[in-house]
Write a structure and sequence with these properties.
This protein has 210 residues and is an all-alpha fold. It has ten helices and no strands. The model has no long low-confidence stretch (mean pLDDT 85).
């Protein structure tokens, strides 16, 4: 959403609205995830993230919108390249490395609302079951997005315009969420992966060149 919507609206407003959309979507998933989360692992990541979210938010508040949009596009392209390889990048990392991954995710969450890719790459490189990874994702992002919400509010990024943008897109987003959940088990996994990566590449390139 970040590279696509930033073509139409100021990136700062877009990122704040996306944060609210993601928190709304995750609200109903948290109670179940709490019981399946590996909390020692998630808390180590979350502490590192919480430290760096305000740093990312500071840069978001001062960067010029066109530069911000290009940064988002470039970051998305980098992560698409990593995800497209399908490799596992991390195995049996040390505590300091886990904290560093959390810090990187926190910085990117504050800066551009795209803290997911480092955590996805990190979690999928481990030996957790899919249900545990899913719960870890939900719990981690619930914690970091709450911190980001506070820093966006303090930094003036969570503005009235951002709230209006959230309200404007929430019905369509929630419909897409429902439709995606219905279709998820009915699509070819390989084709789905290629389609999503293709969409991300197109959106990122548009954010870089327009």
């Amino acid at each position: 959403m970040a590279p696509s919507l930033s073509l139409l609206f100021p990136p700062q407003q877009v990122i704040a609205a996306i944060l609210l959309l993601e928190m709304t979507a995750a609200g109903g998933l948290i109670p179940e995830a709490v019981h399946q989360t590996k909390w020692p692992e998630v808390l180590t990541l979350a502490i590192g993230a919480a430290v760096m979210v305000p740093v990312g938010t500071y840069f978001l508040s001062i960067l010029e919108p066109n530069l911000m949009r290009r940064i988002i596009g470039a970051l998305i392209l980098c992560f698409v390249a990593l995800l497209a390889t399908g490799h596992q990048y991390f195995s049996k990392p040390h505590l300091s490395f886990t904290s560093g991954i959390g810090a990187l995710s926190g910085f990117l969450t504050g800066l551009a609302g795209i803290g997911g890719p480092p955590i996805v790459l990190y979690q999928l490189s481990g030996d957790n079951k899919a249900v545990t990874n899913r719960a870890n994702f939900i719990s981690f992002f619930a914690l970091t997005q709450f911190v980001a919400l506070i820093t966006y509010w303090i930094g003036g990024i969570l503005s009235i315009n951002a709230l209006f943008l959230f309200a404007r897109f929430a019905p369509v987003f929630l419909f897409g969420l429902f439709l995606g959940g219905f279709c998820f088990k009915r699509v070819n996994e390989s084709l789905f992966r290629k389609f999503v990566l293709g969409l991300l590449v197109v959106a990122a390139i548009l954010a870089l060149v327009i």
